[in-house]
Amino acid sequence: MADRLVRISSSPRVVPAPAWGHGAIEPMLPALLRGVIFISVLAAPFLAALLAG
Predict the structure, then answer these.
(1) HSE-up of 7 (CA within 13 Å, CB side)?
(2) What are phi and psi of 15, to 5 degrees?
(3) Residues 1-37: pLDDT tens digits?
(4) 45/39 Cα distance (integer angstroms)
């Protein structure tokens, strides 16, 4: 157990991530847009059935 604690404590420390600016959100926008389109395509038949009564 003690050697395990020594191994864990002597492992290299995690390097902190750099401070993300405004540019970090840009790669997420296409994925978010695809998700919105996907959900709306899935919901369309149910919405149509609700509106049709």
Answers:
(1) 4
(2) -80, 130
(3) 666 655 565 656 666 665 656 666 677 889 999 999 9
(4) 11
